[in-house]
Amino acid sequence: MDLHTNDSSESAAGVFVSDKCQIPVGGIPQQEPDRQQYYMALCRQKVQEISDKLGRPLTCFISTFGCQMNAHDSEKLLGILLEAGFVEGTSEESDFVLYNTCTVRENANLRVYGRLGYLHSLKKKNPHMMIALCGCMMQEPEVVEKLKKSYRFVDLIFGTHNVYKLAELLEQRFETGKMVIDIWKGTDKIVEDLPSERKYTFKSGVNIMFGCNNFCSYCIVPYVRGRERSRAPEDIIREIEELVKNGVVEIMLLGQNVNSYGKNLESPITFAELLRRVERIEGLKRIRFMTSHPKDLSDELIEVMASSKKICRHLHLPLQSGSSEILKKMNRHYTKEQYLELTERIRKAVPDISLTTDIIVGFPGETEEDFEETLEVVRKVRYDSAFTFIYSKRTGTPAAAMENQVPEEVVKERFDRLLAEVQAISAQVCGRDVHTVQEVLVEEPDSHVEGLVTGRMSNNTIVHFPGGKELIGKIVKVYLKESKGFYYMGSLVD
Ligand code: SAH
Ligand code: SF4
Ligand code: F3S
């Protein structure tokens, strides 16, 4: 297969210039999102033609790896594919298969290569199949090189900055019959008002910012997601109002470091101020956000959380390490003492808050003493839950070049100890609300037991209780009968 590479670059003014944009074809709108609507219409024609020939609709399937940002991007990608005439398939045995990839740790990356072999076998059976790859992994030049060389059956490759352009790229693939690659190094462009297909009708993610400027020394995200860009508050509010009109009661404000929201806007506003404005939206019941960097968590935010009726009683506050020495090498800009002091301040202002965290084990140079300090913080803070990760070396990050990488068996042993500690504490902490009545947003029928539904408390804990589908999307009062460690069994209160 030939390659059709968009030799994309950024001009001095930071404006994206792609070879496609320069073709002077009459009638193609130059402004977004009209331009993409135009390409969606063109794709719809092509999809219809193939569909007519085959006598069946063309299906699409998206598999998402990684974090909430990717999950939210996938809703936009699915929205575009449905507009382009596909119907949603249920498995990779579909006509258009898209992997939205993650590269934060090496194993996320390896899983994608593993599954590509399977996709190739499916493509041999279905000549109409198209395989597309996008997301964070595609922002790594070595990955794209490898795909170009050894995975030539892939049809479409694009990155994290041009998700909104899927229809245009797909049309290019239909037109040229060649592999299309479109990767941008960065952008300051944010395209509003594109279609999106939400997984849930009653809750939704809302991007408030893109990218990250923190450069924690182990982390690849700033390299693959680019510099921090905040959306205008008016656009965010408008989107949420629209969502609420369409039945959404809970939103999750998304950003890699929501606490630095708004700093680079023309008229800067704080994250706390944004929350105040979101709180005023009538009909919206619950507000969540993620992720908070401890270094930027302000007293103003704590005050807003304490006085809010809508902000959920849950804060994800990644610790990464309990050793000030390691935190310094991680470039996190807080010490163990500052972190502990911050959690105390939050707990004082919002006593019923549930705290969760992320912890990395085996960062280069981590000694047994450093690790024990992490255990100490875990014991002091008593997290509801903690995501624990084995340090993964990411090429190009400062930590990858550091000396004293910790031997695998030492890391494994520490990881197991940490996990045991985290789980023991969380089993005690999570049960604290047993025998009380709590408000629960009902999300779906229970996946194991017929006749039960599953919902979420404000503090993010899961509750299962007898109920029917008509409750889905509603906030109801539930009596927590029994704590099962990480979740409750309950019963509906009239
Ligand atoms: N922006 C968020 C985190 C995004 S990545 C924040 O700063 O909190 C999610 C988590 O992946 C991080 O919190 C970190 O614990 C983990 N992580 C990131 N890079 C990693 C690496 N190289 N090895 C292991 N875990 C990593
Ligand atoms: Fe990565 Fe740090 Fe940015 Fe989070 S804040 S995405 S850990 S660089
Ligand atoms: Fe992964 Fe990208 Fe999220 S690297 S964790 S999908 S920002």
UniProtKB/TrEMBL annotation:
Role this protein plays: Catalyzes the methylthiolation of N6-(dimethylallyl)adenosine (i(6)A), leading to the formation of 2-methylthio-N6-(dimethylallyl)adenosine (ms(2)i(6)A) at position 37 in tRNAs that read codons beginning with uridine.
Top-level taxonomy: Bacteria, Bacillati, Bacillota, Clostridia, Eubacteriales
Cofactor: [4Fe-4S] cluster
Gene Ontology molecular function: 4 iron, 4 sulfur cluster binding; metal ion binding; tRNA-2-methylthio-N(6)-dimethylallyladenosine(37) synthase activity
Assigned protein family: Belongs to the methylthiotransferase family. MiaB subfamily.
Binding site residues for [4Fe-4S] cluster 1: C67, C102, C136
EC nos: 2.8.4.3
Stretches assigned to the MTTase N-terminal domain: 58-175
Record SMART domains: Elp3
Gene3D superfamilies cross-referenced by the UniProt entry: Methylthiotransferase, N-terminal domain (3.40.50.12160), tm_1862 like domain (3.80.30.20)
Source organism (scientific name): Clostridium fessum
Protein name: tRNA-2-methylthio-N(6)-dimethylallyladenosine synthase
Residues annotated to bind [4Fe-4S] cluster 2: C212, C216, C219
